[in-house]
Amino acid sequence: MSATIETPRAPQPVRRQRRFNFEKWGWIYMRASGVVLVVLIFGHLFVNLFAGEGVKAIDFAFVGGKLSQPFWQIWDTLLLWLALIHGANGMRTIVNDYASNRLLRVIFKGALIASAVVLLVLGTLVIYTFDPCPAGSPANLLPSFCPAG
Amino acid sequence: MSTAVLDNSPSVPEVIPTFTATLIIRRFDPEVDDEPRWQDFDVEMRGTDRILDALHKIKWEQDGSLTFRRSCAHGVCGSDAMRINGRNRLACKTLIKDLDISKPIYVEAIKGLPLEKDLIVNMDPFFESFKAVQPFLIASSKPDKERLQSPVERARFDDTTKCILCAACTSSCPVFWTDGQYFGPAAIVNAHRFIFDSRDEGSEVRLDILNDQEGVWRCRTTFNCTEACPRGIQVTQAIAEVKAAVLRGKP
């Protein structure tokens, strides 16, 4: 009787040369966005949790006030896009590394890109269509610049 | 000669203390076993002995069927890379005194390559990816006497010339364990050795080969390879230098 242990690694396919190298640009994106994200995330955390009254300041009025300023709109948009794509690409590399089943890989990556696109569209929509002064709300919950409703 | 010295000395001859070390070795005999099994061996060792000495003792005195590779037994040939207490080491360079002998010492074959018997794996996939990076000098001109190189130019790739192709780095790489297409650290180290050699003209070809989905970009900088290298090569740094060279398009 003779037992053979399966080759632990996937078989090696024929290499193809492509002009556009997705992996290379993915790698560059991870480095570049990582550097920018360090600034964006710590800036976000500092302003939200530390500056002024600290974490107690966060309520609807605080968020509404922030999202009505173009500076924070751009900041949050950058944060959303860079972080979400950074995370999705990281998940993609993990799928590439560990999902050996072809069908599973397609499903995982499809789910990843679908959820990333939905979240990006939804998040961007919220940032730019957010109404800080919804009609008929009690004035003490709204940002100070809202006309008294 | 040593006996003469001992005979002349009037004092009590020096006794090197010995102790019993327990080795637990992952055995696999394809003709008997369905899957690998762990087997204990007790061996009388001295602190200055190496794991290779323990394996020899087991093979010569206890169980002749124990199978492992070794050639020079002095850390040069790179035959006896194995996983010792979960870390890839050369058995001939690992001293017993550097390990915790109060616990058993686990010895198994390196991972990620097909297991053939006991501590022996099939090295073919490893050498296939080594071959794929064209690890030889590519030069169009033929010099009259020799190819000149300054000490500074030589120092540029000195670190990666030390590779002995033992596969300790490649088989410690978690990406290599699962991905059958990744070149692995050793192949990139040997590509680095020629990419940064001023006498070589084929660096563009090699950078092109490594600028692949399964090339240098698969590296996740876990530093397992640097930790595993018995020659102390800064493997992860070499890979990072190749990444930078790919981005520049030249060494």
From TrEMBL, chain A:
Keywords: Cell inner membrane, Cell membrane, Electron transport, Heme, Iron, Membrane, Metal-binding, Transmembrane, Transmembrane helix, Transport, Tricarboxylic acid cycle. It is found in: Cell inner membrane. Pathway: Carbohydrate metabolism; tricarboxylic acid cycle. One of its GO terms (biological process) is cytochrome complex assembly. Its main location: membrane. It is a multi-pass membrane protein. The chain crosses the membrane at residues 28-51, 71-89, 110-130. One of its GO terms (cellular component) is plasma membrane. Its cofactor is heme. GO terms for molecular function: electron transfer activity; heme binding; metal ion binding. InterPro entries: SQR/QFR_C/D, Succ_DH_anchor, SuccDH_FuR_B_TM-su. Membrane-anchoring subunit of succinate dehydrogenase (SDH). This is Succinate dehydrogenase hydrophobic membrane anchor subunit. The lineage of its organism: Bacteria, Bacillati, Actinomycetota, Actinomycetes, Micrococcales. The gene is sdhD.
Automatic annotation (TrEMBL), chain B:
PROSITE patterns: 2FE2S_FER_2, 4FE4S_FER_1, 4FE4S_FER_2. InterPro entries: 2Fe-2S_ferredoxin-like_sf, 2Fe-2S_ferredoxin-type, 4Fe4S_Fe-S-bd, 4Fe4S_Fe_S_CS, Beta-grasp_dom_sf, Helical_ferredxn, SDH/FRD_Iron-Sulfur, Succ_DH/fum_Rdtase_Fe-S. Keywords: 2Fe-2S, 3Fe-4S, 4Fe-4S, Iron, Iron-sulfur, Metal-binding, Oxidoreductase, Tricarboxylic acid cycle. Residues 153-175 form the 4Fe-4S ferredoxin-type domain. It holds the Pfam family Fer4_8. Its EC number is 1.3.5.1. Gene3D superfamilies: 3.10.20.30, Alpha-helical ferredoxin. The keyword 4Fe-4S applies. It is an enzyme of class 1 (oxidoreductase). Binds 1 [4Fe-4S] cluster. Residues 26-113 form the 2Fe-2S ferredoxin-type domain. It comes from the Bacteria. Its cofactor is [4Fe-4S] cluster; [2Fe-2S] cluster; [3Fe-4S] cluster. It catalyses: a menaquinone + succinate = a menaquinol + fumarate. One of its GO terms (molecular function) is 3 iron, 4 sulfur cluster binding. Belongs to the succinate dehydrogenase/fumarate reductase iron-sulfur protein family. This is Fumarate reductase iron-sulfur subunit.
